[in-house]
Amino acid sequence: MKLKILVTAGDGIGPEVTNEAVAILREVASIGGHTFDFDAKRIGGIAITTDGTPLPADTLAAALASDAVLLGAVGGNEFNSLPPDKRPEAGLLGLRSALGGFANLRPAFAFKELAVNSPLRPEVIDGADILFVRELLGGLYFGQPREWNRATGEAWNTMRYTRDEVARVARIAFQLAQKRRKKLCSVDKANVLEVSQLWRATVIEVAAEFPGVQLEHQYVDAMAMHLMNRPRDFDVIVTENLFGDILSDESGVITGSLGMLPSATIGGKVNLYEPVHGSAPDIAGKGLANPLGAILTAALILRHSAGLEAEAAAIETAVRKVLSQGFRTPDLARDNPQGLPVLNTQQMGAKVRETVMQLLARA
Ligand code: NAD
Ligand code: IPM
Ligand code: MN
Q1: Hey, how many other C-beta atoms are within 10 angstroms of the C-beta on 358?
Q2: CB count, 10 Å around CB of 282?
Q3: What's the mean pLDDT in 98-118?
Q4: Which ligand is nearest to the CA of 75?
Q5: What is the pTM of this model?
Q6: Sheet containing 214-219: order of strands
Q7: Bridge partners of 2?
Q8: pLDDT value at position 338?
Q9: Which stretches within 79-193 are classed as H helix?
Q10: Ligand 1 atom nearest 282 alpha carbon
């Protein structure tokens, strides 16, 4: 197996967590005799500082020429006063749009070892296993017109979708539900927004192609509550860009930490892989970041871009094993009543890497 992986580590904890993910991918390649070629390019704040733009042309060219892109995170407080199109985040949005992936898969799985780390009661989250399918190229993020008119003191964005944009992401969500527990929940705000009425009507049309999947609809405000009250009732959740952004961070409460969540974006020219969390300026550079979201993202590269399912599963098993042995990063050690060993980013990466090596050597 040959794979060209572009690493755009970005800002803050991005480089810290992607280093650990890449080290594991290198190990998987060496054990299995695969050739993974890694290249690294700048994106986000570091690219603004060095190249004067959040998405340099050579980063974009390298991304388009790769088989998969692994992104860390972008953003930093020093860029917060820049207009949206000049900020680090614009680099990420430009990359997403150029790569063309419109279905952002964000699995949220409640490891039972982490139940005490969630503010929710263990019996509420035990067994929760949700797959968010977030539409990634439409809605308010990309809709025109958009503007802040300083003269008039008005600003506007546009939540726009076409029927085809909704249908293609709905189809992917139905297909994934078919392979899981055959339940799909579509989230919208159809009681208020025309764009959500189009969303709902289109999802209902696509449902006719998937008679084996049970479809329900929820309004996004109610969904924010249902997710915390009864997360185990949901299998696949499909929703538009901004709603998916918000609900997927909320699901970090179910998993015990935002630092546990991986993502894969499919459907375009090149798949894009990124943990759900951001650059975490509050903990950057201190070795406090949880690399497991990035490491689980590496597993998704193996699954969706390399067809190496056994190796992907080995990474996921290794994460579970390391957690069951009691190892934690600081975000996973809330109060730490049992006095579990708390590791830094590199130590946690090394634990998972060693465990992956053992699992793959045995196989
Ligand atoms: P954030 O996700 O960076 O952090 C939110 C909170 O979670 C912080 O307290 C942080 O310390 C904690 N956290 C996040 N990831 C963690 C990890 N792996 N281990 C331990 N703790 C972790 O969100 P924010 O603070 O709202 O945003 C910071 C910057 O990141 C902003 O510039 C934002 O735009 C950007 N951002 C980027 C991405 C991305 O690049 N994909 C995603 C979200 C936010
Ligand atoms: C995410 C992030 C991004 C988003 C930002 C950084 C552009 O919050 O990936 O969840 O809003 O999509
Ligand atoms: Mn987000």
Answers
A1: 13
A2: 10
A3: 96
A4: 1
A5: 0.98
A6: 35-40, 2-10, 68-73, 271-273, 264-266, 103-109, 129-135, 236-239, 183-188, 214-219
A7: 35
A8: 87
A9: 88-99, 122-125, 163-179
A10: 11
